[in-house]
Inverse folding.
């Protein structure tokens, strides 16, 4: 994955050097959404479900853009956070559920493409996400285990606005593959198909 990131960064510099209609810059933003979930996990003592409250994440990185008249391609290399909140209930009681956080740090490689109409952009493209680290408060519960996919994929689509050295984008990310493999309580394995369905907002600054 490190070699892939280096290759993409070198490619971005190549766009800057050899194409007269290219841009290279820095991008940062945030995302919000509630990842889709397929089921709940029931243990001997606790029940875990994905909380429906929207979660927030942040991202930053570099981008390159090469334009061919009205058509453009914009690859990016990003470092991002992805957060989830889970509701934990004690089985067989009516107690108010406890909210626990789960956060991961990821490397993301989106490749957007589309058309420009004046300052406006209509764009769509795939995104690969690679898990770097994961920390979860749910691990405080005895008997809880989880496995996450090292890589997941999604589709981005949305609109953008570009003015010389500044751009902003409003996108929606549709999760194609799941972030998680499985989650278990007390060796009772359940599949929670978390997919990153979220709105993405960011701004970019051209060097």
């Amino acid at each position: 994955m490190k070699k892939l990131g280096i290759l993409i960064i070198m490619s971005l510099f190549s766009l800057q050097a050899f194409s007269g209609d290219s841009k290279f810059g820095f991008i940062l933003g945030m995302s919000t959404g509630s990842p889709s979930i397929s089921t709940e996990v029931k243990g001997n003592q606790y029940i875990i479900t994905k909380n429906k409250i929207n979660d927030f994440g942040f991202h930053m990185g570099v981008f390159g853009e090469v334009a061919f008249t009205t058509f453009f391609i914009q690859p990016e290399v990003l470092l991002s956070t992805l957060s989830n909140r889970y509701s934990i209930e004690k089985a067989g009681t009516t107690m108010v559920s406890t909210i626990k956080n789960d956060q991961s740090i990821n490397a993301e490689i989106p490749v957007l493409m589309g058309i420009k109409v004046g300052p406006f952009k209509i764009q769509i493209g795939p995104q690969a996400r690679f898990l770097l680290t994961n920390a979860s408060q749910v691990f405080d519960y005895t008997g809880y285990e989880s496995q996450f996919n090292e890589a997941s994929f999604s589709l981005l689509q949305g609109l953008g606005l570009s003015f010389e050295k500044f751009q902003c984008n409003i996108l929606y990310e549709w999760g194609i593959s799941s972030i998680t493999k499985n989650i278990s309580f007390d060796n009772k394995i359940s599949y929670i198909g978390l997919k990153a369905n979220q709105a993405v907002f960011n701004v970019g600054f051209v060097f």
